[in-house]
């Protein structure tokens, strides 16, 4: 069917509610490595890989092969029966957590990130008998009703009535837009103290000193904010936060759905910050975006079958073999190659390229990165005032496929995040080549020049 006809049918027959739905939706027809291709064969260098769901490159031959094989053997068992790769995958993740944090634990699967966040909420509510959570301003945990309640944007709740279990949103140490006069570490400590103030007396509203109990069961964190704009906190921040949580008996739930699987150079991004989670939620890149599978790890005392019995959560497609076989192959692949050195090396190169671009384009107010999770904050020429219109223009030009390289038409796929929707959140393939990083900088330079002229 012709693209124009397809778009007309989409406008008529598809709900817009289940997509981001930009003004000019783009149709892609093929993908490979770091590239997406449209119907005319134009290649688009992808610097976002579906918000970090495809960390190991499009059409990764090794991961695709196990999926194809599984379709022909045992594609589903409807969460009723067992199959080997579910057990093998759970063992690898649980043993890795034990090695890193010294805690026994178990893995619990579901279909997508939001569903696994919901499962983690059940787990925490079951363990603590409380339904209120702390979460961060700028945090994103998904759009099921449960995950929406702990996601900071009111925009996602506004039309759905009152959320009695809406999280208490605490400021994240977003240094670039924090108060002036504090270095990054000082600001991190300041944010911890600001949070700890809540526990000073019963009149601060969250703590009963007589019972020694908090009204809040857990703190949901993204170690590096994803949708919030790839904001990297100071290295001391989570140690400070965990000290407060331990003191007041509050669980730490780490959402690794976007930053997990070596996006930041470690399997889990929380490993950069020297604290152990009580619950960890993962998704996206576990299957390299192939088949929906997500899940959580939790400490044994929270998840053992006596306290969290069979059927506590369920989906027909949870722990589906198509997903677990790819997840298992992903974990095996990660064990065979030094992804940490590879990602940190490529990340440095990418960051250096962005810093170089910043010298030529004062509209790039802030650049930062950890591994291959990188950010460029697009501003007015003062390098600070958020400039969403300029970034929107850049995204549109990139998606129109009208850039050129060596005489060939090309496009660029970028994602936008941030509190002011003015941040390019870069999540390229972890397998991106040095030449592709150089190409990214050439195309970004063209994009800036073009968008500023238009
Ligand atoms: C940090 C984080 N948590 C949760 C989710 C929700 O995951 P899903 O889209 O698979 O439901 C996302 C998705 O972008 C995310 O980035």
Question: Which descriptors would you attach to this protein?
Answer:
single chain, 454 residues, alpha/beta, Aspartate Aminotransferase, domain 1, Aspartate Aminotransferase, domain 2, 2 domains, seven-stranded mixed beta sheet, five-stranded mixed beta sheet, binds pyridoxal-5'-phosphate
Question: What is this structure, in a nutshell?
Answer:
36% of the residues lie in helices and 17% in strands. It has 454 residues and is of the alpha/beta class. The model has no long low-confidence stretch (mean pLDDT 96).
Give the helices and strands, then pairings.
Layout: H1 3-13, E1 30-32, E2 35-37, E3 43-46, H2 49-52, H3 61-71, H4 84-101, E4 105-110, H5 113-128, E5 132-136, H6 145-149, E6 168-170, H7 184-196, E7 207-208, E8 213-214, E9 216-221, H8 237-247, E10 251-255, E11 279-282, E12 294-299, H9 300-303, H10 321-336, H11 339-360, E13 364-370, E14 373-378, H12 388-400, E15 403-405, E16 408-413, E17 416-417, E18 423-426, H13 434-453
Parallel strand pairs: 3-16, 5-6, 5-9, 9-10, 10-11
Antiparallel strand pairs: 1-2, 2-3, 4-12, 7-8, 11-12, 13-14, 14-18, 15-16, 17-18
Helix pairs in contact: 3-10, 4-10, 7-8, 11-13, 12-13
The chain binds pyridoxal-5'-phosphate (PLP).
């Amino acid at each position: 069917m012709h693209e124009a006809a397809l778009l007309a049918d989409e406008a008529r027959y598809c709900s817009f509610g289940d997509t981001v739905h930009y003004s000019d939706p783009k149709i892609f027809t093929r993908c490979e490595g770091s590239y997406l291709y449209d119907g005319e064969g134009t290649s688009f260098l992808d610097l976002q890989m579906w918000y970090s769901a495809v960390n190991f490159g499009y059409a990764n031959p090794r991961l695709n092969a196990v999926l194809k094989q599984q379709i022909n053997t045992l594609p589903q068992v409807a969460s009723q029966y067992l199959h080997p790769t579910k057990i093998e995958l759970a063992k690898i993740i649980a043993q890795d957590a034990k090695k890193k944090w010294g805690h026994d634990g178990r893995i619990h699967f579901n279909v997508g990130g939001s569903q696994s966040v919901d499962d983690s909420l059940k787990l925490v509510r079951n363990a603590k008998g409380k339904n209120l959570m702390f979460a961060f301003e700028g945090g994103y945990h998904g759009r099921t009703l449960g995950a929406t309640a702990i996601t900071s944007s009111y925009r996602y709740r506004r039309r759905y009535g009152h959320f009695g279990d809406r999280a208490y949103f605490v400021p994240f140490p977003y240094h670039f837009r924090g108060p002036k006069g504090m270095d990054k570490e000082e600001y991190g400590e300041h944010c911890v103290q600001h949070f700890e103030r809540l526990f000073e007396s019963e009149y601060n509203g969250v703590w009963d000193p007589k019972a020694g109990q908090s009204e809040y069961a857990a703190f949901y964190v993204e170690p590096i904010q994803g949708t919030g704009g790839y904001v990297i906190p100071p290295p001391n921040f989570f140690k400070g936060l965990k000290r407060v949580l331990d003191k007041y008996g509050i669980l730490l739930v780490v959402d690794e759905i976007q930053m997990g699987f070596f996006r930041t150079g470690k399997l889990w991004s929380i490993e950069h910050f020297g604290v152990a989670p009580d619950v960890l939620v993962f998704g996206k890149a576990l299957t390299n975006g192939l088949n929906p599978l997500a899940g959580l790890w939790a400490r044994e005392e929270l998840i053992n079958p006596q306290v969290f019995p069979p059927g506590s959560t369920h989906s027909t497609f949870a722990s589906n073999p198509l997903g677990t076989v790819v997840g298992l192959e992903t974990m095996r692949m990660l064990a065979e190659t030094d992804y940490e050195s590879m990602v940190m090396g490529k990340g440095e190169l990418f960051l250096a390229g962005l810093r170089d671009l910043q010298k030529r384009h004062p509209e790039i107010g802030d650049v930062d990165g950890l591994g291959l999770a990188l950010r460029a904050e697009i501003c007015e020429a003062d390098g600070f005032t958020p400039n969403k219109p300029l970034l929107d223009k850049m995204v549109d030009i990139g998606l129109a496929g009208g850039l050129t390289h060596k005489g060939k038409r090309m496009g660029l796929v970028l994602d936008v995040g941030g509190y002011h929707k003015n941040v390019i959140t870069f999540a390229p393939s972890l397998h991106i080549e040095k030449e592709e990083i150089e190409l990214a900088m050439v195309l970004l330079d063209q994009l800036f020049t073009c968008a500023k002229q238009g």
